[in-house]
Write a structure and sequence with these properties.
Distance between the termini of chain A: 54 Å
Strand content of chain A: under 5%
Order of helices and strands of chain B: HHHHHH
Oligomer: heterodimer
Number of strands of chain A: 0
Low-confidence stretches of chain A: 12-25
Strand content of chain B: under 5%
Largest sheet of chain B: none
Structural class of chain B: mainly alpha
Order of helices and strands of chain A: HHHHHHHHHH
Helix content of chain A: over 70%
Mean pLDDT of chain A: 77
Radius of gyration of chain A: 22 Å
Chain lengths: 148, 123
């Protein structure tokens, strides 16, 4: 009975430690970004999820201190950078290149590269680009939010 | 000028004056209503009004400006800067525009003289 209780405690401890490790790992994984480095220490020690939900009002509730204009702007920049990093599964094509391809009328190449030429979105983009360029540009730019 | 034409003109003038009063009252009430509402009144809206954000997921220069102006109106400067740093340019501009509109509305109602009387006169 005692051994069973000890084993249960150890399991709970191990699980909580591993959970904490993954949580802290998510913060450390963004530590090399300049936007995250510019944050004050109280914010940079948070989990990524907490940081994404943070606002100056919540910060004041948590710490009792005001965030300040400079740190508020830094927080917004860090949140944007982390969101982009999390949302961007394909780093093989830069967003600027994608937009340029879309404007030139080759948006289907961008969509194809980012979707590994699966699905029918790139075919639709190709057809729309052939039909007087502009529909293809609009379609490619609208589909951009799925990848970036 | 007598007769129905004069009556019509008079009623038109009275109507215009009433509208000017309504406009002045609305201008005066607008900042008070915004003060009564909480600073985070627009923060939790789920509606995506900006076409740039809705279609392309790219934030434009005006994205977050309503929330920023609302926070700035409640003197929550760091929150305002968080939502849109451009509020430091837009908010004074809005205050100036509001002041100009109030001044013009008062001018149309011949109320400017009362304000001018309060001003110190040069010897």
């Amino acid at each position: 009975m005692k051994n069973g209780f000890l084993a249960l405690c150890l399991t709970v401890l191990t699980v909580s430690m591993s959970f904490a490790a993954t949580e802290s790992a998510t913060v450390k994984s963004f530590g090399n970004m300049t936007e995250v480095q510019a944050l004050p220490t109280q914010l940079s020690s948070m989990t990524a999820e907490d940081l994404l939900n943070m606002t100056p009002a919540k910060y004041q509730e948590l710490t009792g201190e005001k965030l300040g204009v400079k740190n508020a702007i830094a927080l917004k920049a860090a949140q944007k950078a982390i969101k982009n990093k999390l949302k961007n599964p394909a780093e093989d094509l830069d967003k600027t290149v994608y937009i340029l391809l879309a404007i030139v009328g080759l948006g289907f190449i961008g969509i194809g590269l980012l979707s590994d030429w699966s699905g029918n979105e790139w075919i639709i983009a190709l057809i729309l680009s052939v039909l007087c360029w502009l529909p293809g540009v609009i379609y490619s730019l609208i589909k951009m939010k799925n990848y970036y | 000028m007598t007769g129905p034409c004069a009556r019509s003109f008079l009623s038109h003038t009275i109507m215009q004056k009433r509208l000017q009063w309504l406009w002045l009252i609305a201008l005066g009430l607008a900042p008070i209503v915004l003060w009564i509402l909480p600073g985070d009144f627009f923060d939790h809206s789920e509606v995506e009004l900006c076409p740039s954000k809705a279609f392309f997921n790219i934030e434009c220069l005006g994205c977050g400006m309503t929330r920023a102006v609302m926070h700035m109106h409640h003197l929550e400067i760091d929150s305002a800067a968080y939502y849109n740093p451009g509020v430091f340019v837009v908010f004074p501009g809005l205050v100036l525009l509001w002041g100009y509109w109030v001044w013009m509305a008062m001018g149309r109602l011949d109320l400017q003289q009362y304000i001018l009387r309060l001003m110190p006169r040069r010897a």
